[in-house]
């Protein structure tokens, strides 16, 4: 492994070390079309629902709310 030039600032050497360490993963992220964006989006929505729903009577109400938001259960509509 090559050593980094000591004349470079420490903050810059840390960045280069990071890039070297994760080079393969970074390269794969650019070349492959796979992403966990959908999963991260769902997790973000669930966390938001948990913050807003403080005070729900029980877990089942929270679970139902998550299912309604994600379209897994249809909420009754007023006619």
Automatic annotation (TrEMBL):
Domain Transposase IS204/IS1001/IS1096/IS1165 DDE: 10-66
InterPro entries reported in the protein's UniProt record: Transpos_ISL3, Transposase_DDE
Top-rank taxon, per record: Bacteria
One of the Pfam families matching this protein, by short name: DDE_Tnp_ISL3
PANTHER family, alphabetized: TRANSPOSASE FOR INSERTION SEQUENCE ELEMENT IS1557
Protein name as catalogued: Transposase
């Amino acid at each position: 492994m090559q050593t980094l030039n000591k004349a470079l600032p420490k903050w810059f050497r840390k960045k280069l070390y990071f890039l070297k360490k994760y080079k393969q993963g970074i390269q794969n992220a650019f070349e492959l079309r796979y992403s966990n964006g959908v999963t991260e989006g769902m997790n973000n929505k669930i966390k938001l629902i948990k913050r807003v729903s403080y005070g729900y009577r029980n877990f089942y109400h929270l679970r139902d709310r998550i299912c309604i938001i994600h379209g897994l259960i249809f909420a009754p509509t007023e006619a």
